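Q: A reviewer asked whether we had any structural model of the full assembly, not just the individual parts. We don't, so I'm hoping you can provide one. Inputs are below.
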Amino acid sequence: MSDRHVVACIDGSTHSAAVCDYAAWASKRLTKPLTLLHNIEPAYDPVVTDFSGLMELDGRETLLEELTSIEEQRSRLMLEQGKFILNAARQRAVFAGAVEPLTKQRHDGLTESLIELEDGIELVVLGIRGADHEKDNQHLGGHLESSIRAVHQPILVVNNTFKKPQKIMLAYDASEPCEKALNLLLTSTLLTKLPVHLVTSGQSRRVTKLSQREAQESLAAAGHEVVAVMVDGPVGESLHQYQRDNDIDLTLMGAFGHTRLREFVFGSVTVKILLSANRPLLLVR
Amino acid sequence: MLLSSTRRDWLGNIRGDFLAGIVVALALIPEAIAFSIIAGVDPKVGLYASFCIAVVTAVMGGRPGMISAATGAMALLMVTLVKEHGLQYLLAATVLTGVFQLVAGYLKLGELMRFVSRSVVTGFVNALAILIFLAQIPELIDVTWHVYAVTLAGLAIIYLFPLINKTIPSPLVAIVGLTCACIYFGIDIRTVGDLGELPDTLPIFLLPDVPLAWQTLTIILPYSAGLAIVGLLESLMTATIVDDLTDTSSDKSRECKAQGIANIGAGFLGGMAGCAMIGQSVINVKSGGRGRLSTLVAGSFLLTLVVFFEQQVSLIPMAALVAVMIMVSIGTFNWSSIRNLRDHPLSSSSVMISTVIVVVWSHNLAYGVLVGVLLAALFFANKVGHFMYVISEFDESTDTRIYSVMGQVFFASAEKMLATLDFKEAVTNIVIDLTRAHFWDITAVGALDKAVVKFRREGASVQIIGLNKASETIIDRFGVHDKPEEIEKVLGGH
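A: Here is a predicted structure for the entire assembly that you could use as a starting point for your response.
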């Protein structure tokens, strides 16, 4: 089996450059090849509208012909544009020190593409918002949540320009995804030897001093410099506050630990943190 | 996962779906009324069915953007049931149809669609168009000239109005315009209201009023089976058409289940069985509908309109409906198939034509499809049967006749294989080399046995080479064919 890749999802929006940089950084640290992925999303908005309600002679064939020719033009343009974007991204990644990256274009939504490629993915790097929601700071990108839920590999969500991670934070609440995040720190080469702040929000009832202690010891044994702290206040805000105060470059956390129903009712902590963060987040499911 | 759907399925195209849904609802009303009349029930039966089926398939269907409602194909199958046993039996049959379709969905019978060839599909569509047209004829016989005038005026408006304006559905313009004209000029011709009740309330849940007895089942079962088959056929055909038009994919098994639940619901709400509609689905896509919302809007808007405008709807002249239905039948017919008669292989054309003839003659689309599929299979077997020949060589030194059988040996070609062997030739040794032959069935094996026996009777000693290899192809364990290397082994002889 071939190597798993670091997949950077590029769409030419503001975050694409940073996505490139982070992906190059991750690919170097993991010594895994880098793939730059661009998706040509199928047009969902209808391009032909005719309200005549008329069933013409061989109307089906005519309509198919019409839709095909319009979408053909659109796809060609998108293909060309995508190639251009990918090319720029490749140059950037090479400049950032990545070994000759592969580029890939797919006719599909981002989530669907990632599901399709999942077997060959080591880490996904994507921007918090794509081209569709670039200006909208109140919401996450349209594909983000579904991508995070669909992919079982870690996802690095980029929300700011590149800054080489020096100090990282593990948002620790002893939940299952969180233990996986801890495990990633212990086993993966992505973040080895970086100083870790093991931060537990006071509201996570599951965490005992004991489990935090255990986590701290195992991290120290793996060669990390560890600071373990408890912070007070609502989970989202307190973690964000801590991250800013301590100049943390990257937050590692378990994502979407609860069922969709519960999150629908109570709101998702992951979404809250994603929205408020201004440094990248590494999500593990 | 009958309820799962993405946000995009529902809200990806709100404006387009909403407008398209309204266009479709307006087009569905005359069709639902006309199909109720074909089935011989009150218009409200078709209208309630269209509402329920559209709404249920919007939520559960496997093909977002496809329109399902009361249809002509289904209406044609119910005629005798309604005539002989009445509406309540139709409702019971509708529920049973739904149960069959639901089961078919879970058994993934939709996959059997791959045996329905393109010619059969074309024949189905053409036959449906012809039957819809024929169903309009009674409205045009023994009537005053007013009816012809209104029908012609309707057709003129329907086809010419879009040349001026494409933002208002022309069938709607025709219906509204002609209804007003008939009232204004006091033209006294048959109207929708003369033909039975229209819905005046939202549908209510009712158990079909039939005796729960074995006899009831024996009455409705044949109808339900036919309805289930035709409904699924048309629905899956339509799903494929919408797939192609929108360049997306659909979940066919889920669609079967949804059709089933929709029909069960329709039966309990006093509606007749229905299925997906080719014409309306194309109109939906053409009007910009893509998502589930379009189907939901179509169904709910239809019922709202009819309940609120019951009085006005009952005044619609039948002649105007006939004009709309003529347009539907013309639009449904696959006209290029007539042009293609010249270029397509004779076997394909005869499959298409036979399907049409059987349907038009029996008024049952299921029979037509059955005949079409059988014919197509026979033609195929016949064609593949040609891919068999025997090379005959003679080795004088050993007085040996060597027959090398090449190609496909099965029921359609076994006789031919026997015919090429010369049993009258007096030789000492016979070798039958099967290394490059494929034996597909018991007929092939039987033919070989027969040949061996005959040669032995003539006093020759018979040797068969490669029997194991040839008979490897009598594989009923189809799983083997999934692996390329296994297929390669079977086909390796060539």
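A: Points you may want to mention in the reply: Residues 1-45+59-162 of chain A form a domain with the Rossmann fold fold (CATH 3.40.50.620). Residues 59-95 of chain A form the longest helix (37 residues).
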